Amino acid sequence: MTALLASTAADPRPAGRLLVVEDEQKVAGALRKGLEGEGYIAVVEGTGEGALARLTAPGDTFDAILLDLTLPGRDGLDVLSDLRRRGIATPVIVLTARDTLDDRIVGLDAGADDYLIKPFAVAELLARLRAIGRRGRVTDVDRLGLDTLELDRASRQVTRAGRLIEVTAKEFDLLHYLARHLRQVVSRDTLAREVWRETARSTTLDNVIDVHISRLRRKIDLPGQVRLIQTIRGVGFVLREDTE
Fold first, then answer.
1. What residues form DSSP beta bridges with 40?
2. What would the pLDDT profile of 102-145 be if each residue is shown by its tens digit?
3. Which of 32, 74, 89, 182 would bridge with 42, disulfide CB 3.0–4.6 Å?
4. Helical segments of the chain, H only
């Protein structure tokens, strides 16, 4: 990923290439002007469909996405969920006037990296971009991994310490989702929605999720290896190194 830091006179390279998804022309224009004044390349799209077309076009890459939620046609949350389902891990900062706690939780659960409430100062947005740049978010979305575990999205293969692990299609989808949200706790609600495509949880679905997690553990967390799939009681699951 290009470092999301402002360029300087000594370093004239662009600070980063950003996609601004905003349908209000005045807001989009002000954002573009402010970002370009700090050395960024800002590309503006006014619809969710246009944003998805750009983000899925071969060779059209961005360092981060600034995404408004209230868009004509396809709204921002739908765009965000679609991106994450496609395995596009480009960092997303949601820009919105929706400021309730529930709104923020929904946005973050859908895959947002940060959430900024309108109106906001450009200086704060720049600080958020710099923070994202420091996180070292995975940009090679075809290959993800942790410790000796590796996932290849193109071939849908999983290996641990170089050994091929046989997984079902749903097991791969589940593990890949956890890997894309590395070290982040993912709730059963989120897994139900994003992996099983179910809008409502049920006891039966919770049991199905638990069974898949258990099977993945047996296949991946073998004796003598660092345990990677953790259960956070009453919350959900996380892919991270076992610290105990």
1. 16
2. 777 777 777 788 888 888 888 888 888 887 776 544 444 567 87
3. 32
4. 25-37, 48-55, 76-85, 101-109, 122-135, 169-180, 188-194, 203-220
So what CATH class is 143-239? mainly alpha
- Displacement of CA 66 from its chain's centroid (Å): 13
Q: What is the pLDDT of residue 229?
A: 93
Helix, coil or strand: residue 77: helix
- CA–chain centroid gap for 132, Å, is 12
Cα pseudo-dihedral 107, 112, 116, 122, rounded to 10 = -160
For residue 31, the model assigns a pLDDT of: 92
Sign, Cα dihedral of 60, 66, 71, 77: positive
Beta-carbon count within 10 A of 117 CB: 14
As given in the structure block, the two tokens for residue 170 are 């749903």
Token pair belonging to 60: 């059209």
Q: Where are the domains of the chain?
A: 16-135, 143-239
71 in Cβ contact with 47 (< 8 Å): yes
3-state SS string over 125-193? HHHHHHHHHHHCCCCCCCEEEECCEEEECCCCEEEECCEEECCCHHHHHHHHHHHHCCCCCEEHHHHHH
pTM of this prediction exceeds 0.85: no
Task: Identify the three-state secondary structure at position 53.
Answer: helix
What mean pLDDT value characterizes the chain? 82
Task: Say which CATH architecture domain 16-135 belongs to.
Answer: 3-Layer(aba) Sandwich (3.40)
